[in-house]
Amino acid sequence: MHKMWCGAVASAEPVWHVLATDESVTLCGLEKREECEEQVQTDKLCYRCMTTLQTEMAPEA
Ligand SMILES: [Zn+2]
């Protein structure tokens, strides 16, 4: 089960990333930093993380 991390980048809106197994990086290659403010509310998901997650979960060919 992958954990989610709401990552805010200075130049962009916060989005939900998916953490890799070791939980120090996201599936899209970002280094996990501090948690978002609790007030931050977004339902946006990181497209690259989602794509990677789908690839990981897909049955192996
Ligand atoms: Zn991501």
Give me the secondary-structure topology.
Blueprint: E1 4-7, E2 15-18, H1 47-57
Antiparallel strand pairs: 1-2
Low-confidence stretches: none
Identify the strand order in the major beta sheet.
1-2
Rg = 12 Å
Question: How many β strands by DSSP?
Answer: 2
Shape, please?
elongated
Major β-sheet profile: 2 strands, antiparallel
SSE sequence, one letter per element? EEH
How many separate domains? 1
Secondary-structure-based class equals alpha+beta
Question: N-to-C terminal Cα separation, in Å?
Answer: 21 Å
> Based on the structure, what is the oligomeric state of the protein chains?
single chain
**Mean pLDDT over the residues:** 83
Q: What is the helix tally?
A: 1
- Share of residues in helices: 10-25%
| Strand residue content | 5-15%
| Bound heterogens, unique | zinc ion
